[in-house]
Amino acid sequence: MSGGDGKKLVRSPSGLRMVPEHRAARSPFGLDEPPWVPDKECPRCMQCDTKFDFITRKHHCRRCGKCFCDKCCSKKVPLPRMCFVDPVRQCAECALVSQKETEFYDKQLKVLMNGATFFVTLGTSDKSELMVCRLSNNQRYLVLDGDSHYEIEIIQISTVQILTEGFTPGGGNTRAIGMILQYKVPGSEEVTQMKFTAGEDFNCNRKLSASWLAAMHKATKLLYESRDQ
């Protein structure tokens, strides 16, 4: 894994942000700050249509950049995907999304970094290797350690399919038992596939693996959102 993961404090119109010194070192789950809707293009609240005047002030949501009155944009919520140091003002819709993402940053990200053990099969091989899989501390690499060692750059991952069991036609609980991951090898268009299968040796290991896979599923959704920005 490459170095250069230093950070710097910057001030933007939206607030203080702790960002990587180099853009290439940013988290693959991060989002750029949106451009603000210009004040002159926003005579009314974009939610309730209240007209702005000397009493009714306009505020910009830090997540979407749209313009709202204080009533429609009063919540200050953490926004780690944009590296804000403190909670920032967001509209009700964006605040709800950011609050849901907080669980990923507070809980599931730690699960991914702590890692879990899987049987890993590379490509079309019929042999699997027992490996500890974890997300690197800078969130940019999926690290696999066993007799072999792999570091897969998160931005090179093209697809992630979570494998489950326990589904019934009438509904019921499913349990994540593995995943199929495809990624591009840097410097080429070649796509490599890996299959991760949870071991069945200890019940506690199965539970840990299922939690790790659930966190990976959430991480994949955030990754796709960042790419679609």
From TrEMBL:
Single annotated GO MF: zinc ion binding
Domain (FYVE-type) ranges: 39-94
Keywords for this protein: Metal-binding, Zinc, Zinc-finger
Pfam families tied to this protein: FYVE (PF01363), ZFYVE21_C (PF16696)
Domain of life: Eukaryota
DNA damage in keyword set: no
PROSITE patterns documented for this protein: ZF_FYVE
Protein name per UniProt: ZFY21 protein
Source organism (scientific name): Mionectes macconnelli
